[in-house]
Amino acid sequence: MDDLDEVLGTVGPRLRALREHRGATLADVAGVTGISVSTLSRLESALRRPTLELLLPLARFHEVTIDELVDVPAGDDPRVAPHPTVRHGVTYVPLSRRGEGPHAYRLEYPPRTPAEVGEPRVHEGYEWLYVLSGTLRLVLGGRSLDLVAGEAAEFDTRVPHWLGNVSDSPVEVLALYGPQGERMHVRARPRRSA
């Protein structure tokens, strides 16, 4: 029972950190999840024990798995359980466990995803990419490059960049992201218009 209390005791601080990282208020979370502000506050302060009914909508809101919220001990199985995330048509398949340092993903871009070259973006971090199959378009600092199977690229993400598949065939890519890059690519949600 002590182990269970210890694991559940980490949920509140994790929820608070996720919410603060997004710049969301308790009222923002309550509005989307239907969980009252007072319940959310008690959860974050570890004054209320998390239940499945509370964790499911919170995991959806934060775009994480329940395992990530609860930080279930991995045991001694070294395999990484795939929990794909789809964002803007691109499938992100995690290839590393959560923790400090870079995270590895296999990216799957369907044909013509996104449909057209978008506005290059900047954010903190560093990226490393390796094309497994297909042709990936990388726009980096105003320069357009087509990376084919077997080619790699690495760059500082403070340089304006855009990635996509402009061909009629799917593209598979291995990517390493630091924590800032992972949040930008895998977890960030577009801001809701007021």
TrEMBL record:
Record keyword DNA-binding present: yes
InterPro entries, sorted: Cro/C1-type_HTH, Cupin_2, Lambda_DNA-bd_dom_sf, RmlC-like_jellyroll, RmlC_Cupin_sf, TransReg_Diox_bact_type
Alphabetical keyword list: DNA-binding
Cited Pfam families: Cupin_2, HTH_31
HTH cro/C1-type domain segment(s): 15-69
Protein name: Helix-turn-helix transcriptional regulator
Gene3D superfamilies (UniProt xref): Jelly Rolls, lambda repressor-like DNA-binding domains
Entry annotated with the keyword NADP: no
Domain of life from the UniProt record: Bacteria
Coiled coil: none
